[in-house]
Specification:
The protein is α/β, with parallel strands linked by helices. The chain folds into 2 domains: 150 residues, NAD(P)-binding Rossmann-like Domain (Rossmann fold), CATH 3.40.50; 94 residues, Orthogonal Bundle (N-(1-d-carboxylethyl)-l-norvaline Dehydrogenase, domain 2), CATH 1.10.1040.20. Helix content is 43%, strand content 15%. The protein has 9 helices and 8 strands. An 8-stranded mixed sheet has the order 3-2-1-4-5-6-7-8, with helices on one face. α3 links the parallel β7 and β8. It is elongated, with a radius of gyration of 22 Å. Bound molecules: NADP nicotinamide-adenine-dinucleotide phosphate. NADP nicotinamide-adenine-dinucleotide phosphate binds next to α1, α2 and β6. The site of NADP nicotinamide-adenine-dinucleotide phosphate (NAP) has 24 residues, from α1, α2 and β6.
Length: 253
């Protein structure tokens, strides 16, 4: 049985808590949140605390807190030589205080507290300085049925940049499409099957092969019409930038 203490009570910590609680190979022995009210709901299931000096002993401490708080919080932990992992895509393993056995348990997915997700769809990037800690983190990922990859800090930070393109930037483009359709009283729902089909296509095709549209075909008149239709200058600039990028990728000028 792997004993876990969770630190933080935001999106990631809540999803980890639910998944770890379901596992028969793991016991969440304690949940720390600096605001106790955020974990009061589970006080009948596990121990809760808002005081670092009352942290219990565990095999692994999962610190799912803001990137900028990781270093400071790790240095405030009142013990040494225990395995502490953070869950960030962009913070280095060495940002954790060196008095600890350090590791990373980064779930490459987008989490929102009240939106359910199955951990079978959450690749976990794991990293540890000690071999036996790596083995423990693999077992922990397997206990919640999550696929896992051994990824070092440099690879993880690169993955995180790529993730910003496929997740945050793609989502911002959905947002712009929403603004464009709203402005002309067109239901955004009409675009949803296209969004899903575009995402599903890359299961079988590379993004290069999956590309279609006026920029790839170099349909100059259509591109001109689109630019004329766009009323917002920021949207126009983005359209031009992405059109240029697609043209370059597909050998158009
Ligand atoms: N959300 C995602 O989709 C996602 C995906 C993969 C990885 N991550 C990573 O997971 C980590 C947590 O992200 P999140 O989305 O769960 O963030 P979040 O929802 O904003 O929650 C952050 C938690 O950290 C706590 N916290 C912040 N500063 C602290 C400090 N100095 N001491 C103690 N607790 C502190 C917050 O406490 P208060 O509530 O009291 O402020 C809150 O409980 C980050 O490293 C993030 O990069 C996030």
């Amino acid at each position: 049985m792997i004993q876990v203490v969770l630190l933080g009570a935001g999106n990631v910590a809540n999803h980890f808590y639910k998944a770890l609680k379901e596992s028969e190979e793991v016991q969440v022995v304690q949940w720390y949140s600096r605001q106790l009210n955020k974990v009061l709901g589970v006080q009948n299931e596990t121990r809760i605390t808002d005081r670092l000096d009352t942290l219990l002993e565990a095999d692994v401490y999962i610190m799912a807190v803001n990137d900028d708080a990781i270093h400071e919080l790790s240095s405030q932990l009142p013990f040494q030589n225990r395995l502490v992992v953070h869950t960030s895509g962009s913070v280095g393993i060495h940002d954790l205080d060196k008095k600890l056995r350090r590791g990373v348990f980064y779930p490459l997915q987008t989490f929102t507290k009240d939106v359910d997700i199955s951990f079978e769809k959450v690749p976990i990037c794991i990293e540890a300085l000690e071999k036996e800690d790596l083995v423990l983190l693999k077992t922990l990922a397997e206990s919640i049925r999550a696929p896992h990859y051994k990824i070092n800090t440099e690879q993880r930070q690169t993955l995180h940049v790529a993730a910003v393109f496929v997740n945050n930037f793609a989502n911002q483009l959905y947002r712009i499409a929403h603004e464009i359709t709203d402005a002309k009283q067109i239901p955004f729902d009409i675009l949803k099957p296209l969004i899903l089909e575009t995402a599903q296509k890359i299961d079988t095709l590379s993004p290069y092969m999956a590309q279609t549209g006026p920029a790839k075909r170099d349909d100059k008149k259509t591109i001109k019409r689109h630019l004329k239709l766009l009323e917002n200058n920021d949207h126009k600039q983005l359209y031009e930038l992405l059109t240029q990028s697609i043209k370059k990728t597909h050998g158009r000028r």
